Amino acid sequence: MLDCQVIVIGAGIAGLSAASYLQQQGLKVVVLEARQRLGGRIHTTIDRWSIPIDLGASWIHGTEGNPIKKLATDFKIATAVTDYDSIDIFDYKGQPFSEFKWHKYAKIWRRAVKGARKNWHEDGCLQTVIDEMLASKSLSASQIRQLNYFINTEIEHEYGADLSELSAFKWDRDREFSGDDVFFPGGYTQIIDILAAGLEIKLEHRVERVSYDSHRVTVSTDCKEFTAAKAIVTLPLGVLKKQTVTFSPPLPIAKQKAIALLGVGILNKTYLHFPHAFWSDRSDLIGYIGKRKGEWMEFVNIYKYTGVPVLLGYNAGRYGSYLETLSDDEIVASMMAVLQTIYDRQIPQPTDYQITRWESDRYACGAYSFMTPGATGKTIKDLAKPINNCLFFAGEATSLHYPATVHGAYLSGIKAARSILKSTTD
Ligand SMILES: Cc1cc2nc3c(=O)[nH]c(=O)nc-3n(C[C@H](O)[C@H](O)[C@H](O)COP(=O)(O)OP(=O)(O)OC[C@H]3O[C@@H](n4cnc5c(N)ncnc54)[C@H](O)[C@@H]3O)c2cc1C
User: Ligand 1 centre and the CA of 13: distance in Å?
Assistant: First the structure.
């Protein structure tokens, strides 16, 4: 006896887009989610401060043709533009540094990558590209700091990984929608709530085992077992890597290899709430060209958008991972040390903070996927490939064109749902 036609594992954006699409087509769907909440790597805290705070995704990257923007428009959810050119930059001594030339370092970077792609016979990591370039070009200490700032804020933050982890050939193989980057003043969770409406979702049901053949899937959770004709697995790549969910029979070798080869990046956010704003309300962003690459190089001025004195600091890759080993007090002190360098020793202590640790989060095990040396489009296709027309896969890491994004995860859910519909009519 089947519990439903389709089980969806995971109530992040991929699982919810798949479930909502299938239910609209008349299928009976059950969504199983380990957490007490919906949204996965979209997580808005609503009641803690006077403004919603997004601990996971914040932005719709590129509004033109973006399905998340369409949802926002259809459901009249307000968005606001972030202007990345609106930035106050400071050097490592905390002095304003308006002479930073983004285009100059973008050009140095592009040339180095192009050269490696032309001359190298096989893939390697981006760090080697930069090392080779620095060996042939003499840059001053200040120029190296600026290059590092460019690399960290433009590449390492976006991909959640250090240059030493990213593929030189494929790191940027993803596509982008054009248009502005916009965020939700009312929180990203509004999109989650739209998709989840009317679905049968079992929260606090941690999936432990998935048994399948060509006719049915049985999913065992820590509470109960569910059986359906088909299932969609939207477990994050980091969770699949940890093998905390058992598949029986084991996943095909090509899929296991893809899980091992693709990388899972780290991006962590630290929000500090102050008694009053001691920084300017003029710019969207604050840049810090510090001495150590990757440490507190970029802040978002939440005060500008909301009038609430909050600053958001980002850290990605290995430094983001290292920060997770520190206590909250140590992380706050570390961000404060940079703010004191930029502003003044006398700035007030924060009255509260919100800190993420996405790598230690057992139901995320990282922020989002990236291309390691040797990974290709085929690796992603292997990860996404259905098994026996019975077990389907979705989630940001399975998105060939838009990995590591909300829209990529959303579209992957729709794709898996359509494949299921097609397989039932074939
Ligand atoms: C800090 C940060 C900032 C980001 N910023 C942006 C941004 O600005 N714009 C953007 O487009 N993207 C951004 N992203 C990426 C985006 O959030 C993700 O790509 C997207 O939300 C992933 O959705 P998903 O459905 O694939 O995975 P998830 O949202 O992770 O959903 C998977 C679900 O599976 C559940 N699960 C895990 N294990 C089990 C289990 N054993 N049993 C049952 N359920 C389980 C999880 O709890 C989760 O709910 C950001 C991510 C992070 C971490």
Answer: 7
Please say whether the beta carbons of 77 and 184 come within 8 A: yes
* Residues 212/392, Cβ–Cβ less than 8 Å: no
The whole model's pTM is what? 0.98
Secondary structure (DSSP) of 351-371 = SEEEE--TTT-TTTSSSEEEP
Q: How many residues in total does the chain contain?
A: 426
> Partners of 378 in the beta sheet?
none
For the Cβ of 41 lying below 6 angstroms from any atom of ligand 1, the answer is yes
- For the structural domain made of 4-42+188-260+376-425, what CATH number should be given? 3.50.50.60
Q: Which atom of ligand 1 is nearest to the CA of 10?
A: 34
Q: For 29, phi and psi rounded to 5 degrees?
A: -125, 140
Distances (CA, A) of 238 to 94, 142, 199: 37, 37, 26
Return the CATH architecture of domain 45-84+178-185+265-355. Alpha-Beta Complex (3.90)
| Portions of the chain given CATH number 3.90.660.10 | 45-84+178-185+265-355
DSSP state of 182: E
CATH 3.50.50.60 domain position(s) in the chain: 4-42+188-260+376-425
Q: What is the pLDDT of residue 17?
A: 98
pLDDT of residue 426: 66
Q: What is the mean pLDDT of each run of 10 residues along the chain (426 residues)?
A: 93 98 98 98 96 98 98 98 95 94 94 95 96 92 96 97 97 96 97 98 98 95 96 98 98 98 98 97 96 95 96 97 98 98 94 98 98 98 97 98 98 98 84
* Mean of pLDDT over the chain: 96
Q: How many A from CA of 210 to the centre of ligand 1?
A: 20
Residues 334-347: tens digit of each pLDDT: 999 999 999 988 99
Ligand 1 mutation pick, 42, 406, 410, 414, max ligand atoms within 8 A of CB: 406
Q: Residue 53 and residue 34: Cα distance in Å, rounded?
A: 22
61 Cβ closer than 6 Å to some ligand 1 atom: yes
284: Cβ contacts below 8 Å, ≥ 6 apart: 82, 83, 84, 86, 87, 300, 301, 304, 305
- How far does the centroid of ligand 1 lie from the alpha carbon of residue 331, in Å? 23
